[in-house]
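Before the break, one more example. Copy the sequence into your notebook; we will annotate it together after we see the structure.
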Amino acid sequence: MVALIFVFIGALLIGIPIAFVIGCSALYYFLFVGNIPMDMIGQKLYSGCDNFVLLAIPFFILAGDLMNRSKITDSLVNFAKLLVGRIPGALAQVNVVCSIFFAGITGAGVADVAALGSVLIPSMRKEGYATDYAAAITVASSVIGPIIPPSIIMVVYSMTTGESVGALFAAGFVPGLSVGLTLMIMSYYFAIRYKHPRRTESIPFAEAVVTVRKSLTALMCPVILVGGIFSGDFTPTEAAAVACFYAMIAGVFLLKTLSFRDIVECIARSAVSSSVILLIIAMAGLFSQVMALEHLPRTAAQLILQITQNKYTYLLLVNLLLLFMGMIMETAASVILLAPILLPIAIQLGIHPLHFALVMLVNLNIGLITPPVGVCLFAAAPIAGISIEKISKAIMPFICAELFALLMITYIPELVLIVPRMLGFIR
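Here is what the structure looks like once it is written out:
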């Protein structure tokens, strides 16, 4: 087992993509340690992806891509300006609010950075904001995307642990808004300190009505998605397919910004993005067999319970572990590898599984913006035209704000459980 750990860490350090790190580690075990029949590899790779819920992933990615290509970002930005444009640090506040709205469409942090960053970073720079600050708040607010439903990573977590997707979606609302609120407070602080501009004049009522009307096309997508799931009319997979259909109708007929060529390109790009996630899931399914054969979940539980049997201390240790894992490993891979180990211990200590799920997911999503493997940093750097190092330095105060939100979510379970309880997912 020690040799397996060295193979895993070594492959990770030399820069092999995480899917192949997991797969090579499992293959090493099958060949040299476990003496497992090789035909089991194909079976486990297939069974790792043989789950109807996973069909939601390519559909959610496609829906987000179609919405991006339909240029709905402009209407969302104008609507956000109407809501928070007079608060100090107006465009930074708009950035966060847009991420909250956009979270209900894409469910992916990188899509948030790509769509909003291309609009808001140049706008903020034109208004006098420092480029690194504009990039930092754009990247920091992208964490909200995978927390507020719909969320691709929640679908992966559901597949891994058996937790209800609807319950996970319901549990994500308050944590996502909490992260957004902490970012808005931090933006307000910087606005006062550095005298960032804001809108001082009132928007005429007629103009406000036009802005709201134009934004309805974009805002209806999350309403249809989330409403359909919570009402029981759609499964998450069906809701994702409906979102794709709505995005096509809206882009082609309502906004008239989407062509047939655009749709084909979106389908091709979404297929590539989906294949990356599904490859990680397949490889992780193979590695989970290794963990089962080595009784790793039981061994880890015994080790952790020897250290502490206090659930609050356990949550602190888990947060430290996940923050580290988020810095070096892709989010989906961390969920698939760690959730089966950590969740049973949490349940044994009296932690609600839905509460633990959101603690884990919020924590790992912060990894999207932490170096050295923060994919949202890499997405923002070419848009802003500055180095990752500059963005990493500027984003540190916002990461601290998000860690404060994470602590609230960790130690105030009702922030997670209140909406699922209201909707009847839990008692």
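The two ends are 42 Å apart (CA to CA). The chain has 20 helices and no strands. Try to locate both features in your own notes.
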